[in-house]
Amino acid sequence: MRNPRTPAERDGRRNHYDVTGRVRISHPHEVRDAVCTLLHARWPALDLKPLRHAFSTFARLYAGQLPGYQGCDTWYHDAQHSLDCALAMARLLDGHERSVPAGQRLGPRRALLGIVMALFHDAGYIRRRGDRAGNGAEFTLTHVRRSGEFLRDYLPRVGLRADISCARQLVHFTGYEIALEQIRVRNERDRTLGFLLGTADVLAQTADRCYLEKCRDFLYREFALCGLAGQPRSGAPTPIYASAEDLLNRTATFNRQLWAERLDGHFRGVHRYLDVHFGGSNPYRAAIDVHLNRIEALVQSGRLDELRRRPVAINRERLRRILATPKRRARTMRIAA
């Protein structure tokens, strides 16, 4: 009898784990421990209390337990994505610092800033108390600016008040609200930090085990709410995608253009620092190549129904359940990141 599962479905990786299969990226405390392990190994004197504060604040924000905010109600841009982005950012920072001469290293303060920005780069999707939007996805076209506003208010709490202006600019390397060449930076080190941030965002999204299914089930849904997909609406932007199938049909082309123009173009190929971090090939790129080759084959053969994974968004309700679960004994300094 033929095994009905495809090779992609037999890869052994679980949906809520990172690209290595070792870090559960749906759980803030597990990502925190992995990131703290990396930063402590690179900068032993770095005070990790601000980083732990940032992860705690992130969990409360996304769970709807931070005063003034309603929690995460989006599906594609959920808590798991931002945690995955923070982990990818830590790995990129590690690879960068191990690759460049001492005079080009970013140092511990920028590393801390980079992780905090990665955690909160999508905070603009979180509805504030009093927002009239019915879902955070309605802020798609302005969420980066809103994320910058969150960082403006939060950075002083972790000793980064002097970096507010810088962070509000650098977070735009994750979006499309400002042209990349118009983003203002203080110096080349800050620019590099922005390139790492923008790269971490893309890699975390597109290397996700359920990336293709999330495009179909989650991203299209968010685009429809903000007017970028579905039927034209008065006062809304011109839709880009007519259907979820249309989005899937164009996913490979979009990604290859993204790599050419952003990751290998404007961001100067900083993804290569992951080769150094992992001591060999980059597992993010390998996972992305599998996704793109697979979607191209399925589109060409008309077999999109073979995308059978069922992703689960780590939004407000699910995150609350995760946070309420008794934690196992801390594994800080022992997680393989």
Automatic annotation (TrEMBL):
Region (Disordered): 1-20
Chain intervals with Basic and acidic residues compositional bias: 7-20
Name the record gives this protein: HD/PDEase domain-containing protein
